[in-house]
Amino acid sequence: MPYPLLLAFALGSYSSVLWPALPPLVAPGVALLLCATALRWRRGRTVVLILLGVSAGVFWATLWGQARLAAQLPAALDKTEYRVEGTVVGLPGRDARALRFELLVSRVESLAGATPPPLRRLRLSWYGRAPELSPGETWQLVLRLRHPRGFANPDGFDYAGWLFTQGISATGYVRDGVENRRLRAASFLSVDAWRGRVAAHIENLPVPNAGRALLRAFTVGDDRGITVAMWERMRVAGVVHLAVISGLHIALAAGFGMLLGTQGGRLAVVLGAPWPTRHVGALAAWIAGGLYTLMAGFGLATLRAFIMLTVFLAVLLLRRHRMLFAGFIWALAAIAVLEPLAPLAAGFWLSFGAVAVLLAWFGPRPRRGHIRDMVGAQLIVSLGTAAGLLGFFGKLPLLAPLINLLAIPWVEILTVPFCLAGVAAFPLAPVVDRRLVAPVVRRRARRARRRGGPCQLDSRRRGGLATAIAAGADRAVDARAAGAGAALSERHPVDSAGAGRARTATGIAGNRARCGAGSCGGGGDTRACHGVRHRRRFRRSVRRRRWYHRALFARAGQVPAGPADGEPSGCRPQRRRSRAAA
Question: Are 449 and 473 in contact (CB under 8 A)?
């Protein structure tokens, strides 16, 4: 396999980050033809292969760059207005000023009558009272677009370069008008619509803002909710790579898929299937990594990690792992085809640097135990990526190896798998709510009606049905207690000096309201009103209340009258027999 050719192609493509401008396409094309012709010579064949790879890389990077520039809005058409139809992609974000989103263009029409440019992807803002945009919806909008631009401050963020690498054709904002309308709703199979539903579910969870931000980052790759203070704390601790979906997350997802696929392959072999266990495990690992990459929205970082995973699995299946860096070189070449400007991102250097030092350290050495390998991997990765961290961020977290020894297993083995399991259970949420949650809510509401108190469920956690049941129970108990209290006041009038009897009447009314709300129909049968869990506590409270009532009546010199006509006699205080009399 011509590994020098692949490595030379990657170097030629990645050299485009150093060009001040794109060269004419003719120059690398002529160099490519000359190198291809020189392959007939037997002498210096390795040198010719290297030159051929570099020429091919330069030619491809030039072609890719010219295609990206052709899709951008020309500077001469800056601040022009267009009527655009497109699909909302990604997850829209709202701040204090505007709603910000990206639009994948399907049709564009110039309002000035000129020939519209071939726009592909727009980064837009909708100021004022913007409607709610859901990912995957198709809209018709009137836009004022601007050429992608940024500040030219030294050592500052290159916003124009970032827009170019993201494939943004133009920026702009939505003009107010009646022509702005939604044309089609999101398709059920739309990936962005599904990610939007998951993000909406997470936003409704009763957890703190920091927890919701991390859940969105772990599941759908949306880290916009993480505050600057949180980023700074994670940067000091050296755990920034755990807060975003990176190669580590996708590799662990693929590892879980490999484990499940290997066990399934062994079971299939036992049942007589002719499928090799290695192939089943690799296919399951690739599917698991692909689904996680799909959840993250196929960003450049996650797509780079998925390409590396695909290449390494292919090398494993083709049994080409005898050469240590075969998969590494293939991954470099594949990403050079997809994104020649990938070296502009810090994640490119850190991810490939970490993989390179791990291959160089663990490749020629035998395994020495899981604990020793884990500690050695942390130390080697920290040393290998120290130069990149200092160059890009200007800081080097010295305690990062020790912190990552605890943080990586906690996040990647405990936190992320449960987050993904919760996301997988979102489609089953209506069934679970109807079959499991609603019966529990109804039982608690019935208990609340019997006790005469409100339902002990948090209003944020119960749904509309539970809220209605609890509110109905509260109103029924209040009405029953008011009626019973009025009837008891008629039978036991309270004079100005009998404040104790007023409290007694209120207590008996509340007791009868609680008994009447239960299945005993007001008879005071605590066995029918309450379950086993609260029976003893309720009996003790009833005994103390009856003793207090009898003591108050005896002190006042009155004997409570018997039950009225039609009133059950079970609520009448009964005299307990002593143990000696029994």
Answer: yes
Six token digits for residue 466:
């539970």
Cα distances (Å, whole numbers) of residue 315 to 94, 96, 282, 302: 44, 50, 11, 20
Q: What's 17's DSSP letter?
A: G
Q: What is the pLDDT of residues 239-277, one digit of tens each?
A: 887 887 777 788 888 888 999 988 888 888 888 878 888
Q: Given pLDDT bands bounded at 50, 70 and 90, which one contains residue 539?
A: low
Domain boundaries, the chain: 3-70, 75-186, 196-321+366-424, 432-560
Is the whole model's pTM more than 0.70, yes or no? no
DSSP per-residue letters across 36-98: HHGGG-STTHHHHHHHHHHHHHHHHHHHHHHHHHHTSPPGGGTTEEEEEEEEEEEEEEE-SSE
- The DSSP 8-state label assigned to residue 525 in this structure reads -
User: What DSSP designation does 460 have?
Assistant: T
Kind and range of the H or E run holding 328: helix 326-338
Fold of 75-186: OB fold (Dihydrolipoamide Acetyltransferase, E2P) (2.40.50)
Residues with Cβ within 8 Å of 212's Cβ and at least 6 positions away in sequence, in order, are: 202, 203, 205, 225
Taking the CA atoms of 30, 33, 39 and 45 in sequence, report the sign of the dihedral they define: positive
